Queue: 4 jobs
Job 1
Amino acid sequence: MSAIEAYAELRRFGRPVLTTEDAATRLGASLSASSRLLARLAAAGLVVRLRRGLWSLEEDLDPLALGDYVAAPFPAYVSFQSALHLHGMVEQIPRVVYLASPGPTRRTPTSLATFSVHCISPRFFGGFATTGDPPIRVATPEKALMDTLYLSCAKSRLFARLPELELPAGFRVREARRWLGRIASPARRVMVERRLQTVLEEARGDAVRGLEQQRGRRPAGAAGRGARR
């Protein structure tokens, strides 16, 4: 089988991302022969080498679609600062793509992006929406926040300092609180609940201040302080 014939066969596989093992199975070839073939196709610009043993047949593949491949053999979804930014809850664009997974925590670079995979309890895994083809799983606004709060209490302290948050319209507080019951550790559940309450109180304060500014009023109490002077 020529390289062009092999490429056509891989395209018929119907998967935009594949491993060397996938290619070997599809082509009926050995791993070493499939690896050499894929390397030749990559040199010709027909496939993209994402990392060792992982390839893309699409030149403009969305990096967010790589979650399951990066966390394999465990499932994963986009969450934490990455999902918060996608939902417009934080302004700063993360330098890496953050993933939540029941698998081990690790950092994985690829040719498209660097992924930071963070382990959460299997009971706490979920709360995402799936869109696109290939499928992209992104945490809902509520779960992205709860995932971040969940790991803000971890020993790594990576998420200990929360960025400035803006809750989107339609944010479901009840849905966010529902995930508290999925936290097995009572101590951790209490800490996450306290941090959630702080976020909600700050959001309410921001909403009140924004409403006052829209109405052209000074903050409550300002007139009284001026009068006392």
Job 2
Amino acid sequence: MDTTGKPIKVSRHAAQRISQRGATTEETEQAIRTRPWRPAKRGKWHARRVFPFDANSPVNGRHYAHKTVDVVFADNPASIVVVTVKVYYHD
């Protein structure tokens, strides 16, 4: 959980994935700032948060009640850099 208040920067790749997978930048930041951090590959971290959704998925068009936004990021000395964002839709 980020309590440092470091700025969060979103890489170009991550911005594309956020848009393609149906997340928002705000959800991405909330996941980093409010959920526990867990180790990811290559020295990175990830944090995931479940959000109410109650809509059709942009991926397959099916209706889901919730979505989980899973953010992979690097914790650098001056900022947090989002590497990619995965989104899972579920009831």
Job 3
Amino acid sequence: MANKFRLKGVYGKPIAKNTPLEDQHDRTKLLEEVGREAIMEIQKEIRRMSFKGQPTELLNSFSFKVIGKSTLVIESDHPAAKYLNSGVKAYQMTHLTKANRPIPIVKDNGELVFRNATPKSMQEGKWQHPGFKGKHFLERGIEKARDKVKEKISGQIKDEVKKRLMGGK
């Protein structure tokens, strides 16, 4: 699985780090739970996006792993995951001048035409990729997973406190 896209945190924040859990096993279990929840939420976010059909290869490309005692890494081996998530700036496609054959282009009316990318056409500013905005499905999915796990942990803590206050019942 070469060329992986890795996300270690969102907006500079770790996905799950420095948790108050003392036991290494509990901390690893929590990170694994966050990882599973994050992948489910990322897949939900991708399904909400406007793709033609279900992008099953993209949906199935995500995995997670726990590194050490405090790092969770979300990965995708899909070649477009990084670009779909982060977006692409507009740029001139100068690499097309190296094409050995004419480049097929589908016009708005569905007609297929072939063109050559020449240095002259590049100088004229042609062959511009329009770019596109990122979908940011990773960040949204991880934030939602983090919130769900926080809710679950706070519920467990409340139950434990209630149990201890009631005399262990």
Job 4
Amino acid sequence: MPSTYTTVESEYSAARKYAAFFDFSDFGKLRIAGKDALDLLNRISTNDLNGLTPGMGKLTFLATEKGRVVDLCAVYVQQKDLLLLTSPNNSANVKKWIEKFIISDDVKVEDITDLRPMLLVAGTSAAEFLKEVTHSSHKTLLDLSKMPRHNFIRTFLSEDEVFLARTNMVMNDGFIIILNKNDGGTVWNLLLDYSKTYGAAPAGAETFEILRIENGTPLYPYELNEDVNPWEVNIIDAINDRKGCYVGQEVIARLQTYDKVKRKLFGLSSLSRMPRGSKVYSNSPADTNETEIGLVTSSGRSPGLNKEIALAYISMKQVTLGSKYIVKVGGQNVEAELSTLPFLI
């Protein structure tokens, strides 16, 4: 995915007014096969995957024995196997982690990232745009916006069969399209052809990053890594606190039960840049010691808000909505305001 195809402003405007589409082929894709595949994944991840049937999907965290994040993944149940979607450049790490727990289970994990191109169509009218370019008799396509989030169907773009799943990875609504290896160029060109009529546009990495931050979507290795526990990431629907044991469950459950979650992911907005890695400090007049309370993990300028925005892990002891904080940038103090996520939907 290039940085931009045109400009961030025009790509962002297309997404907000109609739809934008992205090349997401570097997101990891694992095929998990075998009669014990779903049972194993349920035993090693934070969400309850029991009861999922073909066409259904869920978000779930994979965590270490110490309750630290390996990745936040989407699990899709297909007819003969599972498809696990990982963060970009993390599929090999996730595959190795899963395979540690295969002992006598009938489970095989295959990294198919390079075999399956992937696109994302997102925007206020993403469903309408895809309805125009998708040819299928499937009843769901009469109104894609009613498809349950993370569920999927098999349909066609041009003559090519595709996997189509609903997601809120970027903005409130979007659709993942996973293709066969040789179909990427054909489908991309089809979207380009239709975009000229309907006001959609291809968009690059910079636009994705802004929309991701606005949406509060965490990504490996910035917000998702082994310095973080799942409760801190604040994606609550990826954790089922009533299910039985899973890898890291004892630590993760104890953090919630005893109110030991010390920080969570929040948004910061400012008139000045807040680069990734910048430290956040209390702005209380009573705090003469400049207490460090957080860390910026991702940042960029939002054309929609006309502000610099950032994702940051902030100490729960210091959280008051609307509070002002100090972000240290190159020795300078930048004032920033706390925000819940998402910034925009």
